[in-house]
Design goal:
Number of strands: 19
Strand order of the largest sheet: 2-1-3-4-9-8-7-5-6
Bound molecules: glutamine
Distance between the termini: 41 Å
Radius of gyration: 27 Å
Number of domains: 3
Oligomer: single chain
Strand content: 15-25%
Number of helices: 15
CATH superfamily of the largest domain: HUPs
């Protein structure tokens, strides 16, 4: 697993591709908050799933050869002008269908049933009574709870449908035309608050659809390796490594596919955390034997920031120079046609692109140049973050890289308020190393979205060894978050904070105080600059 991949004896790429059964379960997105979650839940059952907008033409859907369709929820009310309608032709594809919430309502309308705003909205935890003999509710209790979020309800199911579930506010909370493979639920099986939701989805995937559970990290690797080989042939490929999990996994996939045709460039701007650069070099050049250009640009970046205190100006200078340095290296590696990008599936969905790759500079590692003429290789385009991690583990990437907390491109430079000097950089790096060490030891690392040290520009008076000190404080920032859009300060135990505080003050020169940031986002941001 950890050896450099052999380049001989590999089957023809297209043959490998043919073997892989990746007919998707397509989630038709009606604008739901949970559409991505539906696809993720399906994939957690090891069945491949993709999301498509509700206005995707039926021919396009058919061309994807879906194994089944799941119609998502959505904010609209089915009779309101402009509400997204379900094309009845979708129901003629001959594959099983599961309608969820708005999906159920749209399905009802398309098949001649009736939906109404009954005045009996249900939000949150709701009792659900299920009928006997429904495949969808196999092995779940007749009386269960579910999680609802609706104003409208189905008041008359289409002809040929049997009511299989009801709640206090929605007498038709579930229905099916089992012989046609059409099932619908008013509640949300995809959310964790629906205790038997996962069972309902499994019953649909393996009972109704009979899907094979083959979407595993191993299969993803096989499939991507085949695709990469088919795409790049014998051409050379370039990848910028940042130390983060996405670029690391993308690079390893490409390396497994085309071996030494890949060259990785790692621009070390000097603002990385303790041991990080060494780990990138050790892992890639050492362990995996990936051809690696390690650009040591620490001094260049440090002198660039001389006298700069404005956070935006810091970010701008670092970003721009990062691109310059990368370009200089790319020019030296003359004759490379392909560039690896760690674009994730969530980025693809957000950009709303349905077809070909759209280059989004902000997804590039540290913001790579847009005007370099490369063709993109994006082996993570189909993967959610948790899947990238699983693939990383399978490829033998060290735990520390797989589970690395998010880290900003400009690195420690924006965790030093005011001017970045070598001495201050050392202080924040050292404090951060102590913090990470204690957080890991206490088993908190993975529970936190991010945890780090900040070095403000103020100083305060202290007393150490009977003498007066006038030194910097270190701020500890530790937050929990789902997606970085909102965050809360983590309730770290006092005992842990005490150890962190005394170690930082004892070990880091020029620091005489440790304070804790207890702001949420909003109104604070996670980083300080
Ligand atoms: N907007 C629809 C309703 O309120 C569907 C809601 C949903 O899909 N969550 O009933």
């Amino acid at each position: 697993m950890t050896d450099a991949p052999a380049l001989v004896d590999v089957p023809d790429p297209l043959e490998v591709g043919d073997d892989v059964d990746d007919r998707p379960v397509l989630v038709v997105d009606f604008g739901a908050q949970y559409a991505q979650l539906i696809a993720r839940r399906v994939r957690e059952c090891r069945v491949f799933s993709e999301l498509l907008p509700h206005d995707t033409p039926v021919d396009e859907l058919r061309a994807r050869d879906p194994r089944a369709l799941i119609l998502s929820g959505g904010p609209a009310s089915v009779y309101e002008p402009g509400a997204p309608a379900l094309d009845p032709a979708l129901l003629e594809l001959g594959v099983p269908v599961l309608g969820i919430c708005y999906g159920m309502q749209a399905l009802t309308l398309a098949l001649g049933g009736e939906v109404a705003r009954t005045g009996r909205a249900e939000f949150g935890k709701t009792a659900l009574e299920t009928a006997e003999g429904s495949l969808l509710f196999s092995d779940t209790p007749a009386d269960q709870t579910c999680w609802m979020s609706h104003n409208d309800s189905v008041v008359r199911p289409p002809d040929g449908f049997r009511i299989t579930g009801s709640s206090p506010g929605a007498p038709v909370a579930a229905m099916e035309a089992a012989e046609r493979g059409i099932h619908a639920v008013q509640f949300h099986p995809e959310v964790a608050h629906t205790p038997y939701g996962a069972d309902v989805l499994k019953n649909f995937l393996f009972g109704v659809v009979d899907a094979p559970a083959t979407w595993t990290a191993t299969q993803v690797i096989e499939e991507q390796v085949a695709r990469i080989r088919a795409q790049v042939g014998s051409a050379r490929v370039l990848c910028a490594l940042s130390g983060g999990v996405d670029s690391a996994v993308a690079a390893l996939l490409v390396h497994r596919a085309v071996g030494d045709q890949l060259t990785c460039v790692f621009v070390d701007h000097g603002f990385l955390r303790a041991g990080e650069a060494e780990q990138v070099v050790e892992t890639f050049a050492g362990h995996f034997e990936v051809p690696l250009v390690h650009v040591q640009a620490q001094e260049r970046f440090l002198s660039l920031l001389e006298g700069v205190t404005d956070p935006e100006e810091k970010r701008r200078r670092i970003g721009e120079t990062f691109i310059r340095v990368f370009e200089e290296e790319a020019v030296k590696l003359d004759g490379i046609r392909y560039l690896v990008q760690g674009t994730l599936y969530s980025d693809v969905i957000e950009s709303g692109s349905r077809t070909a790759a759209k280059i989004k500079s902000h997804h590039n590692v540290g913001g790579l140049p847009e005007d370099i003429d490369f063709e993109l290789v994006e082996p993570l385009r189909l993967l959610f973050k948790d899947e990238v991690r699983r693939v990383g583990i399978e490829l033998g990437l060290p735990e520390r890289m797989v589970w690395r907390q998010p880290f900003p491109g400009p690195g420690l430079a924006i965790r030093i308020i005011g001017e970045v000097t070598e001495e201050r950089l050392e202080a924040v790096r050292h404090a951060d190393a102590v913090l990470q060490d204690e957080i890991r030891k206490a088993g908190w690392y993975r529970k936190l979205w991010q945890s780090f040290a900040v070095l403000p520009a103020v100083r305060s008076v202290g007393v150490m060894g009977d003498s007066r000190t006038y030194a910097y404080p270190v701020v500890i920032r530790a937050v929990t978050s789902e997606d970085a859009m909102t965050a809360d300060w983590a309730r770290l135990p006092y005992d842990l904070l005490e150890v962190i505080s005394s170690r930082i003050i004892n070990e880091v020169p020029n620091v005489n105080r440790v304070v804790l940031d207890i702001s949420s986002k909003p109104p604070g941001t996670i980083e300080w600059e």
